[in-house]
Design a protein that fits this description.
Blueprint (H helix, E strand, L loop, with lengths): L1 H9 L2 H20 L5 E3 H8 L4 H4 L3 H12 L1 E2 L5 E2 L1 H4 L6 H15 L8 E5 L6 H15 L7 E4 L17 H8 L9 H11 L7 E5 L9 E4 L10 H4 L1 E2 L1 H7 L8 E2 L3 H4 L4 E4 L7 H13 L1 E2 L7 E2 L3 E6 L1 H9 L4 H4 L2 E5 L6 H13 L2 H4 L2 E2 L3 H13 L7 H11 L11 H8 L10 H15 L3 E2 L1 H13 L6 H29 L5 H20 L4 E2 L6 E2 L3 H8 L9 H17 L10 H14 L1 H9 L5 H18 L3 H17 L1
Parallel strand pairs: 4-13, 4-14, 7-10, 10-13, 15-16
Antiparallel strand pairs: 1-6, 2-3, 5-6, 8-9, 11-12, 17-18
The protein binds adenosine-5'-triphosphate, magnesium ion and zinc ion (ZN).
């Protein structure tokens, strides 16, 4: 068999891939057949339990925490970077840290474990995604050795077999195994134990269980539908009339329909969607469940259940909820974690990339390299604090939040600025709004290429036609689009086109930078410079230095301190063993770029001036276009558009 596989792989690429898939599927299936186990409680205690007493007696919080740790690793900052979220949720690390902290504390036995976890955030902000990742994580984990879970076979809440240990023997149990047997047998198993096994709990059947949302094991989900018809039975079940005749008594737990979400979630996670929309009666039940680990169902004694409740809601519901005074006591019993939109446009663009790459229609369309970033800057602008802040400040903030160097601010200022505006990210445009705008642009365009300008227009159309946005906000948001174009896109596209004018821009820029540095050092030291070709000694080229510096408006009186600072930075880099590059000094970076660009502008002038370009001109232009395609992420359509656009910009300067 193995040989067959290798043979197949060495033939054509297609069958090779085919074989790879088969092999992965086989591995997957093998993993998922993970040691199944079934036996009596007696043999469970003998063969399974002693090997992992701690693991088997874990609470749901401890189980989830262990799952996160199994997925995660310590980041450089000593924090747990949970891999579960790392490549799925972008730009909301603070939120993820808080969720991780919650489980860490709850697993350690802190009081927070007795409070319901409520995720609070704007629509399409990733709340459901976060819960889905946890669910999938649990499903996977339960198939691993470390995540092995056992339950009483046939139990409607897949309860821990340790519930079978009689109370009078629990002290002895504890001293033998070093762990607690906590929790009560459910009414169903209690009845069965008497009827089927005559009370001999050692004979009760136990099996390994695997968390599976579809199988209603360890994951439960509840979404409120119509509140007027919602019945508590959706959560805790009801009498199953078809079985009453069989057992002869409505009060027999075996005649109960155990279909409620809280039962499915036992041992794992209960997701409560839009929790504040549910009746208060539901809420009390859930809060008691987290606090006391039990629910009351008519005619049965309290039912012990161990599960973690993760609820979510949006801000509008939450504000409404806050207005009712009697809800205050309920809030005390919740841990609330905000899930805002990201404020980093780079992370926001990653969300778009993820969402677009999973859609066929998008995969067939080329987006120019700034299309998603431009949309993301727009989205972030709508999320910033409204108020009297000046536009320029907000533009700086956008760049600061994306981790860029901003004059007059250091990265450490970010925390301060964020703290001053705690509500930022809780409103504004959602990723979904942008994706919808992009989708309609794709449908309309027919062309298989969308440029940044197409995207800006698509967003403008989406704003115009959205009835939920009032006129004042529409105007403001459309102004943002203008800002995005002027202050972000123009800079980016100019840089691309300019760089594409050179065979190797990076190399020429580095050479120019080194020349600048040599000349500066010579002037500062009052030295002469040796001409590399003639070997003649000459004075430093002050004219060259000034022509570079003037690009970034360094004045005659400011030049000395600028030059000293450049040399200081260069020395610093040298001492650290780093190379002094354009990235080492932001203002000098701009100066060098502009200096080089101006030398090559004539090519761009050709694009616009020649009505009927001759062969040579056409050739020059097509070289630039080709570089845009090969090196800067354009396709030929968007490259041509970018070239025309930049030429027009230059004509206006
Ligand atoms: N920070 C983020 N990182 C990655 N993807 C995100 C992020 N925020 C939102 N998304 C994506 O946006 C989409 C909508 O998110 P999701 O459904 O999780 O939001 P929600 O908060 O549950 O919204 P709602 O309140 O409308 O239910 C998902 O496809 C999700 O992957
Ligand atoms: Mg949701
Ligand atoms: Zn049971």
């Amino acid at each position: 068999m193995y040989q067959e596989v290798t043979l197949m792989r060495s033939s054509t690429g297609n069958t090779g891939r085919h074989a790879d898939v088969l092999k992965s599927l086989a591995d997957f299936s093998k993993q998922h057949r993970a040691a199944r186990w079934a036996g009596t409680f007696a043999s469970f205690l003998e063969t399974i339990f002693p090997a992992d007493a701690r693991g088997i007696s874990r609470t749901s919080h401890q189980y989830i925490w262990d799952m996160m740790r199994a997925e995660g690793f310590e980041g450089a900052d000593g924090r747990l970077r949970c891999q579960l979220f790392e490549n799925e949720l972008y730009g909301i690390n603070d939120t993820i840290d808080r969720v991780v902290d919650y489980f860490k504390a709850a697993a350690a036995g802190s009081e927070v474990g007795r409070r319901l976890l409520l995720l609070l955030g704007p629509p399409s902000g990733g709340k459901s995604s976060m819960v889905i990742l946890l669910k999938r994580g649990l499903e996977e984990y339960s198939h691993t050795d470390a995540g092995a879970l056992y339950g009483i076979h046939g139990c409607p809440v897949h309860e821990s077999p340790l519930h079978l240990v009689p109370h009078t023997m629990r002290a002895q149990f504890r001293s033998t195994y070093g762990v607690d047997a906590a929790g009560e047998l459910c009414p169903y198993c209690a009845t069965r134990l008497q009827h089927e096994f005559g009370g001999d709990f050692m004979q009760m059947p136990v099996q390994r269980i695997f968390i599976a949302e579809a199988g209603r094991v360890g994951v439960g989900t509840y979404a409120p539908h119509d509140p007027t018809t919602a019945d508590i039975a959706d959560l805790v079940g009801s009498v199953d009339l078809s079985k009453v005749s069989e057992y002869g008594d409505e009060g027999d737990p075996r005649a109960w329909s155990w279909s409620g979400a809280v039962f499915a979630a036992s041992r794992g996670l209960l997701e409560m969607i839009e929790i504040l929309k549910v009746k208060r009666e539901f809420l009390y039940l859930l809060l008691t469940l987290t606090q006391e680990k039990n629910v009351k169902v008519s005619r049965f004694p309290l039912i012990h259940l161990d599960e973690t409740i993760l609820a979510h809601t949006n801000l509008a519901e939450f504000r409404k909820f806050l207005q009712e005074a009697e809800n205050e006591a309920l809030l005390d019993r919740m841990v609330i974690i905000q899930v805002p939109y990201t404020l980093s446009y780079k992370e926001e663009a990653r969300i778009y990339r993820k969402l677009t790459s999973s859609t066929q229609a998008f995969r067939e369309v080329h987006l120019d390299p700034h299309a998603l970033h431009v949309a993301a800057v727009f989205a972030v602008l709508t999320r910033l604090q409204e108020g009297d802040e000046r536009e320029a400040d907000n533009l700086k903030k956008v760049r600061l939040y994306a981790g860029e160097d901003v004059e007059g601010m250091s990265p450490s200022d970010m925390e301060k600025v964020r703290a001053k505006n705690p509500d930022e990210g809780l409103s504004g445009v959602s990723p979904r709004f942008v994706i919808n705008a992009l989708s309609s642009a794709i449908i309309q365009s027919q062309a298989k290429s969308l440029t940044t300008m197409d995207v800006l227009i698509a967003i403008k159309d989406a704003i115009d036609s959205d009835v939920r946005i009032d006129g004042k906000k529409k105007r403001k948001w459309i102004d943002f689009l203008v800002t995005v174009r002027k202050d972000f896109y123009n800079r980016w596209v100019k840089e691309d086109v300019h760089k594409a004018l050179f065979v190797s821009f990076e190399q020429e820029a580095q050479q120019l930078l080194e020349k600048y540095l040599d000349e500066v050092e010579a002037t500062l030291d009052n030295r002469t410079v040796k001409d590399p070709i003639t070997n003649e000694e000459r004075k430093p080229d002050e004219r060259f230095l000034r022509s570079v510096e003037e690009k970034i408006r360094i004045s005659e009186s400011g030049k000395l301190s600028f030059r000293q600072e450049v040399v200081r930075k260069a020395m610093g880099a040298y001492k650290r063993g780093d190379k002094f590059t354009l990235d080492s000094h932001a203002p000098l970076h701009d100066a060098v770029e502009q200096y080089l660009f101006e030398q090559r502008r004539d090519v761009l002038r050709l694009v616009s001036s020649a009505a009927r370009p001759d062969d040579e001109t056409r050739q020059k232009i097509s070289v630039v276009e080709k570089r845009l395609v090969d090196e800067y992420g354009y396709d030929s359509h968007s490259a041509r558009e970018a070239l025309n656009y930049v030429t027009t910009l230059l004509a206006q300067e």
